[in-house]
Design brief:
Strand content: under 5%
Helix content: over 70%
Number of strands: 0
Order of helices and strands: HH
Mean pLDDT: 87
Radius of gyration: 15 Å
Number of helices: 2
């Protein structure tokens, strides 16, 4: 159970960072497109990690119910 809590906390932290990077990319879009693209790329990488964690928590919750 502690393992799932750790995964969920990590997921929340990554989601917070993802939102910050997306906002930064949006704000930089008009002034510096290169930095905007870099921020967006980092956000996409974080989203990939978030989705992997969602998959892990889905499997763990389904195992706990059985």
């Amino acid at each position: 159970m502690a393992y799932t809590k750790k995964i969920i906390e990590n997921q929340k932290m990554l989601l917070y960072k993802y939102k910050a990077l997306i906002e930064q990319a949006y704000n930089l879009r008009q002034t510096d497109s290169a930095l905007s693209d870099i921020s967006e790329y980092k956000a996409i990488k974080l989203l990939y990690k978030i989705n992997k964690l969602k998959y892990l928590t889905r499997d763990l919750t389904s195992l706990q119910k059985n």
